[in-house]
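Handout, section 4.2: multi-component inputs.
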Amino acid sequence: MSATDHLPETHMAETDAGLLRFLTCGSVDDGKSTLIGRLLFDTKTILADTLSAIERTSHRRGLDAVDLSLLTDGLQAEREQGITIDVAYRYFSTGTRKYIIADAPGHEQYTRNMVTAASTANLAIILIDARKGILTQTRRHSYLAHLMGIPHIVVAINKMDLVDYDQAVFERIRTDYLSFAAHLGIKDIRFIPMSALKGDMVVDRSEQMNWYSGPTLLDVLERAPTAHSEMDEPFRFPVQFVCRPHRSDDAKLHDFRGFMGRVESGRISIGDAVTVLPSGKQTRVKDIRVLDSSFPHAYAEQSITLLLEDEIDISRGDMVVQSEKSALVTRQLDAMVCWLAETPLDLQRKYLIRQTTRESKAVIATIGFRVDINTLDRIAVERLEMNDIAHISLRLAQPLSIDAYAKNRATGAFIIIDESTNNTVAAGMIL
Amino acid sequence: MSNLAQLPKHTLSHLDWLESESIYILREVAGQCANPALLFSGGKDSIVLLRLAEKAFRPGRFPFPLLNIDTGHNYPEVLAFRDYRAAQLGERLIVRSVEDSMQRGTVVLKSPDELRNKHQSVTLLEAIEEFGFDCCIGGARRDEEKARAKERIFSFRDEFGQWDPKNQRPELWDLFNARVHKGENIRAFPISNWTELDVWQYIGREQLEIPAIYFSHQRPIVRRSGLLQPVTELTPANPGEAIEQMMVRFRTLGDVTCTAPVESDADTLEKIILETASTTITERGATRLDDQTSEASMEQRKKEGYF
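Output:
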């Protein structure tokens, strides 16, 4: 069995339900670390030596039971502060599906970390303390999850054990949340009552909440669509690398020109008409290759080498697209950005923008407004500081090939780089 | 969630997804960095990296040389495999050794039997300077250790090779930023999102060759502080210790002095995968003498320029 036989045709969907990336939002007080610990514990991801280490720590701190939140405890500095200060990634598997958890902190000053964690997630779990109901941070997390284009939201109403597993509490929070979410335009929301501490409705069902007949958290995770498997987006193939071996000892390779990259969305077949952006030149797909094998089709998220019928000058940063459904080639764009750097935005300066595999110099022409993420009010501002979310207009030195972020997360996203430090200073979602 | 009921047809399996992401990362290194190198030790993680590099760049040559930092205490079978695999691929292999750094005086051991693992950082930084590498591709995984869970895929190091966990670039979507000024460099980790089990499943699926000591074999062993310590010239038994002949295999390969095998009769890839899936001890917990010193020891070494 050669490995490449696996590529486009056999998807093993029956036995392997792929990989889901999700995000947990909430503060330490909501029991977020406990929830992650519970998921890892109940899916038997935690191994004996790790468990005995947290048992020791729990006892040292004078706790009666093992504190599952210690599992996601991170670096030294944080251990000293007792809080999570950055995005941490955790892994578990259920045998049918692999999961990557992006653990984002709940504190206000760390909007940038949540935005970072959300950028690769396809589902967000928003934790609410059943005793407290919807808080400012709930609105903030929900807005950011929506802004970052996460299609599935699970509202985990946690600590039900502390409200006597009362259905009325659950229903009230659910109603409150729905009226608020309608305002945001979030489409797919699920509500699960749970106690991460006791293990109710996380992996196992609960004797305490027979009034709830919906799925457990793990049931939802097991069946949620993975990224790119739900929208019928047009084919987008940003070129990462051009392969020209020029091998004189092999006649077949002498003229080989392979365009290497990942199918960011849609699908492509040999013979399909494609357009190369930004030049607009048209050709057809001659072959789709991985190593020595040729494939008739390739799908979103597959890394492939594309061979084209005609000799067109193509380099890194160009994008091959489906001819009937091309992307917009433009030198100016409007976007929502999250400012990530401690140094504020300087309207006088030129920045570098990277979108797909392409870079261009850019100036921020105007700041439309800043969004107060607690109230969702729009505020006129002159400058942007760390953690600010704002509407901006950009002018570009080089054309970019774009789609709206709401339509395509891969071709609608960009980062802004400060060339003096080379730091990534902002994340942008094209409108 | 009306569309939850059935999975769409073109969902990639988790291994296909991980493979594709890793190929994407390798191509980003090639596209963004002027002079990268791939750290190849002959261990399982870097064996996977080489397979991914083949899928990323063939029919072309790799756009980077392979680099190995040899402590002088590696298992000879692994070094032989390293040379064999590099030659088989027809790719350039650069080896720099901690012993050369010791001769230069840039590595000074506190005692002759001090573990050399952490001193690899010095030799690595010297190699980076010698060749002007702006990026080193490594096989580290986030599931290995707590400090790695927050590591970026493109991890920025200053000109002293230092990792500052509080001063890392935000990493959003798959828009990696490998830009550096002269002297600074990037460590890129294409298999960040893989677990130990993913690595073995992939080795099994791709039928990759691995050094024989990953498979069960008989070896003289002493039991020391809960771990199995192989008895070798470098690591003799202490007076009074009982030497046993045991069936063992290595889960992870590093220095002879700091890598402990586990008791196992897994002599095929299939058995290793089964054993990994049902194990109850973490990879480093079972095998690494150097990580047990303190809970934060990996974090400390990374700050000092370690992989």
